[in-house]
Amino acid sequence: MQTEILKIDRENIDENILNHAADIIKKGELVAFPTETVYGLGADGLNPSAAKKIFKAKNRPEDNPLILHIDEDYKLDELVEKVDDRTKFLIKNLWPGPLTVILKKSPIIPDIITGGGDTVAVRRPKDKLAREFIKFCDTPIAAPSANISGRPSPTNAKDVYFDMNERIPLIIDGGSSDIGIESTVIDMSLENPCILRPGYYTYEYIKKFIPNVCLDDSLVDDSKVPRSPGQKYKHYAPKAKMQVFVGDKSVEKIEDLALKYKNEGKKVGILVFDKDTEKFSSYTTLSLGNRDNLIEMSHVLFEALRDLDRKNVDIILAQGVEDIGLGKSIMNRMKKSASGNIFNV
User: What is the pLDDT of residue 206?
Assistant: First the structure.
């Protein structure tokens, strides 16, 4: 299969491209498209055979549910049994945006979308291009990140192509995703709503709208099994072994280990904040941005991991951040990228 890439101007959206992409979706095939979080791998969310192709293209386990994407709030009503008042209040304030809500599914939802469960995950993207694409498709779009499962999520069309070339017919190239990490996932089907995956919308921020919201046990205790099926799998991982260091002595620790690994003949990749990059000029070093701007860090993290993969490093040493606010979402990704190799120093 030849994978086509069509570049689109976000300020002057070419409807011919969207019509072409929508035709592919309506034929039961896959299209990768940009959202504000990461690029999604889209299929008709009401077509079981189309959704099955997502799992094949990504090498994704079929017990890992898919998120449905809609272009208008009211379309949630068609996909779930009931939208209760607290969910209405939440989406009124946070949709469109990087928030996925889980509710009891309606009968029209195929089992393959939910992993056989009785709930469905839905979000309405903030990205205008994503919403226009969904509108042209005229169906909910099932869309996990457009990467091979386990790899860092793609935030640009180049990285999608690296994973999906010859696996899918089309990639819509809309430039870089604004946020760079996936949506916050909150289970609203529970008596006490629970955040299963942290994202751009933080626990602290969501508490303003849902005071009794909790964090899944696995987000505060590594020994607990994640409630969300997808969270139990390896995610966001570069090819190289990765270690992350958090604390006042993180730079010094990275310096020591970088020299050790270099002396062992290994090619070392470094991920540190702007102010410390000069200390690692003799290594393959990329910046995580300004230490005081976690939004910038979330934007560059996955792309940086992929860049280091392309540079064929043997080991990645990275600075982490405090596990609060947006830092919790970032560290959730870094922890999975590093297979749990997080060290406080």
Answer: 97
Phi and psi at residue 205, in whole multiples of 5°? -70, -45
- 263 burial level (CB within 10 Å; 0-12, 13-18, 19+): exposed
Angle between helix 294-310 and 157-164 (nearest 10): 40
pLDDT the model gives residue 220: 79
Helix (H) or strand (E) holding 92, with range, is helix 85-94
pLDDT band per the 50, 70, 90 thresholds, residue 285: very high
d(CA 319, CA 330): 11
Average pLDDT over residues 38-48: 98
In DSSP terms, 39 is beta-bridged to 34
> Which residues on neighbouring strands pair with residue 215, listed in sequence order?
195
Report whether pLDDT(167) > 80.
yes
pTM over 0.85: yes
HEC string of 4-66 equals: EEEECCCCCCCHHHHHHHHHHHHCCCCEEEECCCCEEEEEECCCHHHHHHHHHHHCCCCCCCC
109 Cβ contact list (under 8 Å, min separation 6): 45, 46, 68, 79, 120
Q: Which residues of 78-108 are buried (b: 16+ CB within 10 A; e: fewer)?
A: ebbeebeeebeebbeebbbbbbbbbbebeee
CA 234, CA 310: separation in Å to the nearest integer?
A: 20
Strand partners, 269: 284, 316
Q: Rounded to an integer, what distance in angstroms lies between the CA atom of residue 169 and that of residue 160?
A: 12
